[in-house]
Each structure stands twice: as structure tokens, then as C-alpha cells.
Amino acid sequence: MKPKYSTFVTFPEEVFTFPSVFEELGLCNLIGCHLDFYPELVKVFYSNMVRKKGKLTSVVKGVPISLTASDICAIFEIPPGGHKFVGTIAPWENYSKHAFYYSLSRMLHYFLVYVVVPRFSNHCTITDPRIMLLYSIKTHFHVDWGHSILSHMMYHDEHVEGLPYAHLLTKTFRHFNVNLENELCFSMEKPSFMISTKQINRKMGAIFNPQTLEIKYLDNEDEEPQQEANSDDEFNPPTDVQPDQPSNQIIMDYLQDFCTDVMIEIGHLSSRIDRWELSQAGFQSSSYQGGGFQGGGYAGGGSNDRNKKQ
């Protein structure tokens, strides 16, 4: 799962109010984190992860790691305490699934599904847990974000959708003194890792005009403004101006981003292959005992008994 971050510098405060909401929640350090990440170590962390009641344990390069919700808050620099809403329904019985998903909520949801509790795909789909988080944010209900993040980690061990918090796990590795020297790592300094106003588009239900600093939130029936029929740009394009060619730097940035994506996907594939091999090894060890298949009705079955008679 490709990590994302934002420092909110491209979001004018006179237009966007959601950065101040995240600041009040104490999540700016979490959202703004863009450390180098180590895909191989991330894979090892999730492969060795063991879930216990309220605790996550793992081993990376021989170093034991134990995390609770309080540890997550301390390492990721987010406020501790709050309601552990994961798996509970009582405080949320009267909330409306659709009443809170408009304007401000769309921006909040975007950062929730890309950074705070990220998922690999279907970012525009609104799920009940995310609606609950939006409800808690907009009604100032104190959520235990450390518990939410820890629960999200536990759900994604070797998950087909990818492994979240790769860059934030760098903080964890450093906290537990895992040796990171000579490990494959990727930088998040490239623009593709950063969420900016360039991502504010129709796909997330909004249209932002950087010239006028205006943003329009679209309803379901709204249509994106179409170009006027008498536009000179549409019917009389300039013929003597050649389109801009990508610079070498743009090409190199694209190739590096592509390489990052490929390496992450290879890591996911390798994890699934390792998991499959382990499951096959477990099946074989349970099916064979002493070199003979149990049950004389099969070819080769009961061969140990015959050897004993001889």
C-alpha cells in the first residue's frame, strides 16, 4: 500500500477548513509524517505479527516489538485516550449514515482513507466505520485514535489489499532500535506521495479553482461544468505551438515512482507465496507420519506395517 501524507501547505486556509479540524484532533503530525520507508521490513513486521487482547507483537531482525494503543499514540505523536469505538455500537445508535457526508466531511474522509486508516482501493466508498469516525469528528466525540490504528494494523496482516503505515512503521523500528542500515528504502519526497490541491477533483466530489481560490462540492445530480460550444480553444486550436515535452526530471520521477510501486507489489506477492508455502508445509506434516500415508486403502498406505512384519 503506497503511503500518503500532507502538510496542508497547498490548501489555502481561507478556502479549506479541514486542516484546522485535524489540528484540533492532534493528527497533524501523523498526517504530515513522510519518513523513508522500508518495504522489506514492513513485510517482515506484518508476517511475524501476533494479535493478542489489546496488544500487537512482532519480531523484526531479531528485535521483539510490542505495541499497545498507548504505545501507538506515543510513537506516532497523537493524543491518547478516547472512545474505543471499534466493534461497539451503543454510542452510535442514532447516527445517520448520510447526514454528515457533505462539504467538509468529504475532505475529512479523503484523509481518513488515505492516511489515518488507509485502504488499498475503493477510496470513494463510504463504509460504516468511516462514517462513525466522521460523526465523532464533527460532534467532537473523543476517539481513541491509537486504538483505531492498532486495530487497523491487526486487520491487515498479510492482507491481500496491502500493508498500511509503511512510513509510520519507520518510527516504530527506530523506537525499538531496529538496525536500518543497508536496508532497501524509499523516499517520500516525490510529489506522488503528497496529497495536495491537485487531488481535489470530481472523483472526490469537489472542484477546486486555484485561480479564484473557490471550491465547489458536488451533489450526486451535479454535473461538472462543460466547455462552452463557442470556445475558440475547442474549435480553433493553435497549430504552430507544439505540446510541451516532459523533461528528463519528470521522466526520472515517474520511473522512480513506478519502481516503488513495483517493489511494493513484489513484496506483497512474496508475502503471499511465503504464506502459501507455510500452509502447504503444515498440510503435509499433518498428512504424513513416519513417511507412510495413514490408511492402507491408498497406494503405499500401511507400508510401515509391512516393514515391521518383515
Quick description:
This protein has helices at 18-25, 28-32, 39-47, 69-76, 104-116, 128-138, 145-155, 166-175, 232-235, 248-287, 303-309; strands at residues 50-52, 55-60, 63-67, 206-209, 214-217, 288-289, 292-293. By secondary structure, it is mainly alpha-helical. The protein has a 3-stranded antiparallel sheet with strand order 1-2-3.
Task: Describe this structure as you would to a colleague.
It is a single chain. This protein has 310 residues and is mainly alpha-helical. It is built from 11 helices and 7 strands. A 3-stranded antiparallel beta sheet has the order 1-2-3. α3 packs parallel to α10, α4 packs across α7 and α5 packs across α6. The longest helix is centred in the C-terminal third of the chain and has 40 residues. The chain is globular. The N and C termini lie far apart (60 Å). The relative contact order is 0.15. The C terminus is likely disordered.
Q: Please work out how many helical segments DSSP would assign.
A: 11
- β-strand amount: 5-15%
Main beta sheet: 3 strands, antiparallel
Radius of gyration: 25 Å
Q: In total, how many beta strands?
A: 7
Low-confidence stretches: 220-243, 285-310
Class derived from helix and strand content: mainly alpha
